[in-house]
Amino acid sequence: MQCSVSNLFWRSRSVLVQAGSSSSQPAIKCWCRSNAVLHGRTRSHSWRPSQVKSGDSEGTLSSEGIVLDEQTLERDLQIAIKEEDYAQAAKIRDSLRLLHEDSRASVLAANARFYNSFRTGDLATMQSLWAKGEHVCCVHPGVSGISGYDLVMGSWEFVWADYEFPLEIELKNVQVHVRGDVGYVTCTEVVKTKGSNWGKQFATNVFERIDGRWFICIHHASHIDL
């Protein structure tokens, strides 16, 4: 049964199984559990969107740039500590704190880490990026939702087994929305694997802040025509 899921479903990220296919749905339904997407997050809020596009002009947030800035600051911090330049280390810590306090930037950085782990096939990092709990949900293209941390991680293991890395992933029309300890990113993800055509999905990634860190709790990708 799992072999059927791997062959018919997880390749859908690149080949894109047609939704409603009678051949793939029975196997998928045996493995997946559908569930409500959000639990306990039904209060009405006025979400503030901020659109982000790769290559935008100065002053616009870029998720890839944020991750690079964070990595550079962390590297410089380690160098300052090693050289016992504690005044410089304190300044770098302040810069990191300000970066983390910018909620929109932090959510975009978490989103970039998610796609970087997907792009490189880093399963250990993918596992660390998700919130732990039964409320997490992943909807891969063409099937119903998979709920619960263990089952969601199992689904990514199937994805990893079926791909050749690194992948080519291009994100377009990225928008970030944040309210309190919940934020989400919408984007169009264009994925290409070796020997396959481009596949295009509209994705929504929901993040929750736990102990000051943003974790992904929902990933929903739906196939759209190229």
UniProtKB/TrEMBL annotation:
Pfam families per record: SnoaL_3, UVR
Protein name: F-box protein SKIP8 isoform X3
Lineage top rank: taxon: Eukaryota
InterPro entries cross-referenced by the UniProt entry: NTF2-like_dom_sf, SnoaL-like, UVR_dom
Residue stretches making up the UVR domain: 72-101
Domain called SnoaL-like: residue spans: 107-223
Transmembrane segments: none
